[in-house]
């Protein structure tokens, strides 16, 4: 279906009578949404039961000992999809499976694919106020590992789909629930390639992102890419006495520290490698205005991340650097003696663990090659090893599918969303963008306070209720479009 087609105009009958669906008659989006408000409130106990069941399964993908729990998560997820009126299948991969749920309304009808992940981060019980793998409900707050990342948003979308399926809306709905996102989606590309003939879609919705401020909805349309690598410098076979060898002996820690200083200005963060930023596209003023309009506050940002100072406190510069500029970061410098006191040796080797976040239109392999060549030109005996490379993503912030997302958010939360870019990376988004050839829209529901990856992670009913309305509105928009 061409994405430039306008929604089907509602007839006078559809504006005054119950939604007419199926049999070739398409109701208006507004007519389809009748009864949604009552459904949302009435479905709350069902949502809470489903979330409790999912949170209660500790599907930690990073822990091999949790393999059985990953399998249980997949089986239970398939059951939830079937209970909501969709078909479900569990697709094996060389790693963890992917769960696919589908409602097929017609071959000539629009198709939406909704992606979430159901694997979770580990949880240290000592750091939690409640049991991390048992949902605790306190008023509107749902505490538990995975509640906001990403089981709560996944079930939010499912509740909306259940309403659409139950009312026989003319739209095809597909869920793709991954179980390896928290370990970098190592097998997701293989899944997509193998299933490609069965994954054709008009649009992909992803609900795995965070608003900038609790009172300001946001839609992400961009992600930074990532290149991680290690640099190792070996200058000897063993520790030597600094009194006997210091001076003529090369110190690999000192040399690596100096090398890093040649790569990046420690005060400003500006990357100093010639040619590094040549492909970086400038941010348009209206884009930057959107970043600021997201509700970003510098003091809140610092407090949330425990930062005592920044390189700049100008709000436009801060959001520009997070959302639209590349970085060069040092994550660790190892080598030598790190025990109590000072051991006066010259170490034989040192390793720096480094990464760069890249932005459109930087190519990860080209960036790594540039950095490697810059380093080895100065230190021919340095070994530079690539660990991972992920390109950036830039999706639509205008056009039919992005506009429909903005309308859905405004309908659900009463405010037009800001369009922003995410500073991090989501591998599955890149894979789907590459292979499915459809717009990927990030309609996240999590808030900064929800504690992504942190102790005492939680979700809340306000976001869930709004999210059900949001996804239902988007589905209704597609259902009200003429068939291809």
From TrEMBL:
The family database entries (Gene3D superfamilies) matched by this protein are listed as: 3.30.70.360, Zn peptidases
User: Which residue stretches belong to region Disordered?
Assistant: 1-22
What Pfam families has UniProt attached to this entry? Answer: M20_dimer, Peptidase_M20
Q: What residue stretches are annotated with the Peptidase M20 dimerisation domain?
A: 221-380
- Domain of life the protein comes from: Bacteria
Keyword Iron-sulfur listed? The answer is no
| Keyword annotations | Hydrolase, Metal-binding, Protease
Q: Which residues form the signal peptide?
A: none
Query: SUPFAM superfamilies, alphabetically?
Result: Zn-dependent exopeptidases
Xref: PANTHER family: BETA-ALA-HIS DIPEPTIDASE (PTHR43270), SUCCINYL-DIAMINOPIMELATE DESUCCINYLASE (PTHR43270:SF12)
Record's protein name: M20/M25/M40 family metallo-hydrolase
Species source reads Frankia umida
């Amino acid at each position: 279906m061409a994405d430039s087609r306008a929604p089907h105009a509602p007839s006078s009958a559809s504006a005054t009578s119950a939604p007419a669906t199926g049999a070739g008659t398409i109701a208006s989006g507004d007519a389809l949404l009748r009864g949604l408000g009552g459904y949302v409130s009435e479905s709350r106990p069902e949502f809470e039961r489903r979330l409790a069941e999912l949170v209660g399964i500790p599907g930690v993908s990073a822990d091999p000992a949790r393999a059985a729990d990953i399998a249980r998560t997949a089986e239970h997820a398939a059951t939830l999809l079937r209970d909501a009126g969709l078909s479900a299948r569990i697709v094996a991969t060389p790693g963890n499976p992917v769960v696919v749920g589908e409602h097929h309304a017609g071959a000539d009808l629009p198709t939406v694919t909704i992606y979430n992940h159901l694997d979770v981060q580990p949880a240290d019980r000592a750091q939690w106020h409640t049991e991390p793998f048992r949902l605790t409900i306190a008023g509107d707050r749902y505490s538990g590992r995975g509640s906001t990342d990403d089981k709560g948003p996944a079930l939010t979308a499912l509740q909306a789909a259940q309403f659409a399926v139950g009312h026989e809306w003319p739209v095809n709905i597909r869920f793709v629930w991954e179980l390896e996102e928290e370990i970098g989606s190592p097998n997701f590309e293989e899944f997509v390639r193998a299933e490609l003939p069965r994954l054709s879609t008009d649009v992909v919705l992803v609900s795995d992102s965070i608003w900038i401020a609790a009172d300001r909805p946001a839609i992400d349309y961009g992600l930074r890419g990532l290149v991680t690598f290690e640099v190792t410098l070996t200058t000897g076979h063993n520790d030597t006495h600094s009194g006997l060898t210091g001076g003529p002996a090369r110190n690999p820690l000192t040399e690596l520290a100096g090398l890093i200083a040649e790569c990046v200005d420690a005060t400003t963060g500006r990357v100093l490698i010639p040619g590094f930023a040549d492909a970086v596209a400038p941010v348009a003023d209206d884009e930057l205005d959107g970043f600021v309009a997201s509700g970003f506050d510098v003091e809140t940002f610092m407090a949330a991340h425990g930062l005592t100072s920044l390189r700049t406190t100008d709000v436009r510069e801060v959001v520009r650097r997070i959302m639209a500029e590349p970085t060069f970061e040092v994550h660790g410098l190892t080598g030598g003696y790190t025990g109590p006191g000072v051991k006066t040796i010259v170490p034989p080797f040192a390793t720096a663990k480094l990464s760069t976040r890249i932005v459109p239109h930087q190519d990860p392999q080209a960036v790594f090659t540039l950095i490697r060549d810059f380093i080895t030109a100065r230190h021919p005996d340095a070994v530079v090893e690539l660990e991972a490379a992920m390109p950036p993503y830039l999706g639509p912030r205008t056009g039919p599918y992005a506009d429909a997302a903005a309308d859905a958010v405004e309908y659900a939360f009463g405010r037009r969303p800001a369009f922003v870019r995410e500073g991090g990376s989501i591998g599955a988004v890149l894979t789907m963008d590459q292979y499915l050839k459809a717009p990927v829209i990030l309609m996240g529901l999590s808030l900064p306070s929800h504690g992504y990856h942190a102790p005492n992670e939680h979700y809340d009913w306000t976001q869930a209720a709004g999210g059900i309305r949001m996804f239902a509105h988007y589905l209704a928009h597609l259902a009200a479009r003429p068939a291809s």
